[in-house]
């Protein structure tokens, strides 16, 4: 085989964040940029010689060209086999499953998740390790170190084989196996949820609208919902993955999935609405006239998981990211199982799942998953919801109201301030951190602070510590505000403000969250000086 060893220089700033490296697509397309980062990943993960590697992505612009480069590079670095989703497609949970099922060394997952795709939008790349989950911090640190010292990359001169048909090819001595991206995933779901029971639900006239937002979940949702489960054709909308996601911003929130929200709050709403994101790991579930807050969805799925086919032996533990509401904690307490509060980002759940300490985990950012893979899984969550509805035969709204009646309601909201000047955002967080010890006892906008800290996490499985994970302010009335900066944005800085308060009284469960949370929002604004420092009167996105 003809390997080119191409001299290169470190490219500044190739630091993987919570979900790998995200940049503008044109940055990834600059000569040598992707190659540089891929070689750094290969070094950082300890080489790929004699390894089998999974490769796939969410189908966004540059997906196929990037895969061709990755294949030529892992061949040059001695990998024995690449397992590639046909047409370069693998949803993030499907990639996680494939890595596990094939006992591969790991996988390259090409995605910028919910960020828009296209030549002028975003691209991303991360490496998942042998357990199917995102590379843990020591590995991402090693990758980052490699980006600083890299002096050459290796690439074979042969062209990569076509990837749009299933089959086995040779690339300079490495086997390239092109697989159906959907088949293994469908098999896994068949074991986890009761296809017969859900089929009966659809046969009884239950209606669903699943919006794939022209992103990766289209083929998966069509095969399962309309194929296996017999939902009528047209249940899946925007079901063809497009390189620019058809100009959708594939983030299933009220702003970007407005079409779906409008239908679900309109006169002709089906029984259930659902959507996933660009790479298929997020989910949102709606009923007629109601959208289920992701934090509530996690709590509710934890409380009902034993009803689903693959979980009849129950839940071993529940994990949530720190800014996620405390609704799940109430369920874990009632079940008498462990509850783990982790930093934002899925990689922290992996150790807990591997250790059998948690069965289900989730984040307020519309991510829920279980120990079936090591990523959050959008379609999985939607299928579990369907299995719960099929078993309980109640509407989504009834199931949610019943949950609040049992556990109380954790009113919750996240306010995002996007594309802030980095210096302003950094200074705001630095000043907050600097003043934490002075806050307890002080009153802001009528709210007295009880506790204030910067979240630090000690992983119970390996003792590793992750500090500075977000500022938490607890108020005397039990409500909470959390401040952190996004690790996935590609433009300036994004401030995320998360607020919540608990309401046990069912007579007060139908209020507008923004109204209920107005007091804590105002106190948070005064404490951090959001409007004063940024000049922004309101957030860009409220979820
Ligand atoms: C965001 C979400 C976080 C999620 C991550 C990857 O990260 O808030 O929960 O794990 O995307 O999907 P952030 O931009 O807040 O760092
Ligand atoms: Zn995603």
3D structure, described in words:
This protein is of the alpha/beta class. It folds into three domains: 3-179, 3-Layer(aba) Sandwich (Alpha-D-Glucose-1,6-Bisphosphate, Chain A, domain 3), CATH 3.40.120; 185-407, 3-Layer(aba) Sandwich (Alpha-D-Glucose-1,6-Bisphosphate, Chain A, domain 3), CATH 3.40.120; 410-542, TATA-Binding Protein (2-Layer Sandwich). The chain is 33% helix and 26% strand. The strands form six sheets. A seven-stranded mixed beta sheet has the order 2-6-5-3-4-9-8, sandwiched between helices. Strands 20-21-24-25-26-19-27 form a seven-stranded antiparallel beta sheet. Strands 11-10-12-13-14 form a five-stranded mixed beta sheet, with helices on both faces. The protein starts with a strand and ends with a strand. The mean pLDDT is 96. Residues 18-19, 113, 321, 344-346, 363, 365, 367, 486-489, 496 line the site of 1-O-phosphono-alpha-D-glucopyranose (G1P). Zinc ion binds next to loops.
Brief summary:
The protein is an alpha/beta fold.
Bound molecules: 1-O-phosphono-alpha-D-glucopyranose, zinc ion
Beta-strand fraction estimate: 25-35%
Indicate the percent of residues in helices.
25-40%
Distance, first to last CA: 53 Å
> Major sheet: order of its strands?
2-6-5-3-4-9-8
Number of domains: 3
CATH architecture of the largest domain: 3-Layer(aba) Sandwich
* CATH class descriptor of the largest domain: Alpha Beta
CATH topology of the largest domain: Alpha-D-Glucose-1,6-Bisphosphate, Chain A, domain 3
**How many helices does DSSP assign?**
18
Q: Can you tell me the residue ranges where pLDDT is under 50 for at least 5 consecutive residues?
A: none
* Number of strand elements: 27
Average pLDDT metric: 96
According to CATH, the homologous superfamily of the largest domain is Alpha-D-Glucose-1,6-Bisphosphate, subunit A, domain 3
* Cα radius of gyration in angstroms: 23 Å
Task: Tell the overall outline.
Answer: globular
Structural class: alpha/beta
Largest sheet: 7 strands, mixed
């Amino acid at each position: 085989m003809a390997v080119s060893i191409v001299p290169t220089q470190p490219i500044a700033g190739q630091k993987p964040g919570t979900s790998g490296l995200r940049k503008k697509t044109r940055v990834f397309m600059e000569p040598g940029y992707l190659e540089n980062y891929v070689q750094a990943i290969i070094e950082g993960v300890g080489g790929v010689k004699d390894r089998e590697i999974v490769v796939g992505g969410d189908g966004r612009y540059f997906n196929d060209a990037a895969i061709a480069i990755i294949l030529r590079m892992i061949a040059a670095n001695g990998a024995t086999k690449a397992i590639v989703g046909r047409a370069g497609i693998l949803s993030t949970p499907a990639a996680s499953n494939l890595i596990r099922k094939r006992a591969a060394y790991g996988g390259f997952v090409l995605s910028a998740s919910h960020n828009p795709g296209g030549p002028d939008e975003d691209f991303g790349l991360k490496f998942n390790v042998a357990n199917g989950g995102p590379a843990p911090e020591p590995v991402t640190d090693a990758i980052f170190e490699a980006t600083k010292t890299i002096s050459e990359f290796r690439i074979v001169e042969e062209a990569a084989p076509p990837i749009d048909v299933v089959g086995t090819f040779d690339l300079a001595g490495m086997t390239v196996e092109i697989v159906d991206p959907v088949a293994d995933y469908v098999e896994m779901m068949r074991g986890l949820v009761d296809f017969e029971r859900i089929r009966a639900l659809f046969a009884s006239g239950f209606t669903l609208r699943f919006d794939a937002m022209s992103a990766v979940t289209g083929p998966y949702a069509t095969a399962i919902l309309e194929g296996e489960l017999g939902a009528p054709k047209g249940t899946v909308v925007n079901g063809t993955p497009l390189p620019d996601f058809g100009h959708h911003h594939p983030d299933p929130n009220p702003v970007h999935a407005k079409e779906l929200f409008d239908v679900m709050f309109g006169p002709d709403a089906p029984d259930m609405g659902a959507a996933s994101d660009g790479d298929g790991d997020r989910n949102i579930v709606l009923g007629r006239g109601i959208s289920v807050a992701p934090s509530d969805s996690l709590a509710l799925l934890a409380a009902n998981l034993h009803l689903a086919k693959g979980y009849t032996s129950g839940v071993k533990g529940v994990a949530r990211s720190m800014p996620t509401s405390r609704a799940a904690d109430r369920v874990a307490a009632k079940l008498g199982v462990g509850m783990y509060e982790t930093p934002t980002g899925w990689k922290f759940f992996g150790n807990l799942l591997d250790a059998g300490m948690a069965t289900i985990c989730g984040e307020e950012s519309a991510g829920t998953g279980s120990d079936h893979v090591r990523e959050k899984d959008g379609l999985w969550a939607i299928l579990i919801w369907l299995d719960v509805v099929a078993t309980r035969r109640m509407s989504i709204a009834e199931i949610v109201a019943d949950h609040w009646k049992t556990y109380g309601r954790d009113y919750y909201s996240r306010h995002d301030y996007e594309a802030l000047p980095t210096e302003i955002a950094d200074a705001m967080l630095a000043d907050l951190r600097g003043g934490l010890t002075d806050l307890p006892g002080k009153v802001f906008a009528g709210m007295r602070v009880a506790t204030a800290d910067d979240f630090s996490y000690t992983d119970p499985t390996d003792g590793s510590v992750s500090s500075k994970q977000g500022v938490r302010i607890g108020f005397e009335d039990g409500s909470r505000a959390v401040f952190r900066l996004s690790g996935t944005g590609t433009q300036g800085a994004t401030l995320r403000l998360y607020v919540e308060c608990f309401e046990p009284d069912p007579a007060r469960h139908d209020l507008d969250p923004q109204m209920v949370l107005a007091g804590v929002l105002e106190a948070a604004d005064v404490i951090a000086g959001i409007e004063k420092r940024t000049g922004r009167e309101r957030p860009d996105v409220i979820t």
